[in-house]
C-alpha cells in the first residue's frame, strides 16, 4: 500500500489530555499538527480533575521516566522542581522495605533519581509546557465516540461536544485515554479481531489521606517511606509516605483481598500500624490530617497485546495505560507513558507518519516499555491467591525466587543495588539482573549484614516529633 497523500502538514488527533496524551502530543508535534481532545475542562492550576481519579494517590516518576521526560521535553523536570517537586536519590532518600521484608540500605553511590510530587502538580507543569507548543491545540469538553475508517486505515474520530456530533479527520489517531479506553470495541467495529488480553488482579484496594508534614520535616529533605506488601503472607498490606510540595505528606495504604483498608478516617492510622512494620503508623501519630480518606479499587493489571494482532489499521495507535494498566503500588504508569511517547517519536524519525505499516511499527515499539513494567508488576501480583486463572509456571516461580535473591543481594551490596535499581527504575532491561554486577556479589562478593529494622536516621525521627524552630 503506498503512502497516503495529504495537503500540507499531517494532522493527528490524540484522545485524552492526561499525562500519556500530553507526552504523545509533545512527541508528535515534531511531525504533525496535533489536536488533543478531552471530555473534561482542564483546571487552571495544580488541581485534581474528574478524568484522573487516581490523582489523589501517591505518584512518582522512576529514573527511566525522568530520562524519557528530559529526552522528550528538555527542562521540564527542572520546571517541576522549581514548582515544588523533588528529585529524590534512591535509595539514599528513601526508607524502603522490599516484598521479601528486607530493608534496603540507604546507599548514596547510585545515580538513580525519582521525581516526586503530587500528581496534580506534575500534570499542571506538563500541560502548561506542552500547550505552549503552537503545533498543539486542545479541545476540552469533547468526548470521542468512535473511529472513522475501516480495517485497513483509520481516517479520523467521531466526537461529541457542546456543538453536537462531528468528525475530526486525521492522518493519525492516538488513543491515550487510559484504563477506560474503548479501543478494543472500536477495533471490533472496524471488523478487526479482538486482541489477546491478560489480567492479573491481586484484589488490591487503596486508601489515601493527606497530612500536614509534622514537626520540622517540611523544612528538610525527609525521605520517602515505603513498606511493601509480602505476597508470601497474604493478605498483602503495604503503605507509602510521600513528602510532596507545600509541606504535605501523601500517605497511601494498600491491601489485597481480605486485608483491604477502609475509607474510615478513624481506622487509617490503625491500619498503618498493622503493616508488616508499624513505622508508617508511628510517624502518622505526629501528623495532622489535611482532608478525608480517598479510596480506589481499580488496580488490576490488565494488558492488551495489540502488537500481536495479525492485522492493524494504518493511522491508529494506542499508548500508555490504554495498552496496559498496572497495580499502582509499583508506580510505573507515568514512566511508561513517557517512554511510550519517546518510542513513538523515534519510530517516526525513520518512517513516514502516513506510510503503510508505520502505525504497527509504533505499536510494537510502545510494547517494549509496556512489557518491562508488566513483567515487574505481575511477577509479584501473580503470586497472590486468586490473582489469575493461570498460576505461575515453574519457570516463572524460579525467576521470582531469583529476583528475591537479587533483592537480598542488593540490600547488602551497593554494586548489586545499582543493577537492581537499573531494572526497577526502568532504565535497563531485566537482563541487567544477570550481569556480573549482580552475579559476582550474589555468589562470591562481599556483602554486609542485612538490616534488622528501618534505616530512618535519628535526626529524621527527631524532626517528626519536634515542633517548628
In short:
It contains 13 helices and 21 strands. It is of the alpha+beta class. Among the domains are: 202 residues, FAD/NAD(P)-binding domain, CATH 3.50.50.60; 94 residues, Alpha-Beta Plaits (2-Layer Sandwich), CATH 3.30.70.
Q: Percent of residues in beta strands?
A: 15-25%
Q: Write down the overall mean pLDDT.
A: 94
Helix fraction by DSSP (H/I, runs of at least 4): 25-40%
What is the level 1 CATH name of the domain at 11-59 and 118-199 and 300-370?
Alpha Beta
What is the CATH topology of the domain at 11-59 and 118-199 and 300-370? Answer: FAD/NAD(P)-binding domain
Reported CATH architecture of the domain at 11-59 and 118-199 and 300-370 = 3-Layer(bba) Sandwich
Shape: globular
Please give the largest β-sheet: 7 strands, mixed
- Report how far apart the termini are: 71 Å
CA gyration radius, whole angstroms: 22 Å
Given the structure, what is the number of helices?
A: 13
Structural class by SSE content: alpha+beta
Question: How many strands appear in the DSSP assignment?
Answer: 21
Unreliable spans are: 1-7
State the fourth-level CATH superfamily of the domain at 11-59 and 118-199 and 300-370.
FAD/NAD(P)-binding domain
